Amino acid sequence: MNLGIFFEEVPDGDGTWIDLLLSGLGWTLSTAALAWILAFVLGSIVGVARTTDKTWMVRIGNAYVELFRNIPLIVQFFVWYFVIPGLIPAVKVWVTTLDPTQHQFVTAVVCLGFFTSSRIAEQVRSGIQSLSRGQRNAGYALGLTQLQTYRYVLLPMAYRIIIPPLTSEVMNLIKNTAVAYSIGLVELFFRTREMGEMTFRYFEAFAAATLIYVVIAMTANRVMAFIERRVAVPGYIAGGK
Fold this sequence. Notes:
By secondary structure, this protein is mainly α. It has helices spanning about 15-50, 55-70, 75-85, 90-95, 100-130, 135-140, 145-160, 165-175, 190-200, 200-230. Helix 9 packs antiparallel against helix 10 (about 200-230).
């Protein structure tokens, strides 16, 4: 194993190979962070919709989850990148104002956001439905509207309960950013393949990428575990002692 390869100059002279991998890491983290925000917001909205007493909202929410959860992620990347701009003229016009990297980045964020939101919606739904009916009724008895009951009574409890599965979704999202290489985004996996193909040091390149992914995933896991301990509700799934 030649560790010195990471400190050699890349062919274009723009830094070393370790710099190239770190630049890919930057795109990976940026994509994952923005996609998580989008996924959490959309997933919460859809998850709540699936627990209301409005049949049409439940059906729309169910269709949303089934659509984005059952189509392979790489297929969704191609649909968002190649098909959607062709179907919606306004999107096509807007995409033409972006450079290729920006287009790839926006597509990756949107695709991963929608894909992950379908999974978060299921977690939010299960979290709300795990609460006793009395909590919802207590909110109504206090004179709260349905929206206020969700905001002040149900969601604060549901989010605490579903932190463990949300931790898995955070880690999955980080790993799923690697699929963005399929549309040309220069994230960590893309840079790793580039290094391997140009230096023929595949072992070193992928060993480094593996280590980086493990460190990121473990860090995310520890952060979510800390949050879980701070907000745990005794007696529930995420309850701690």
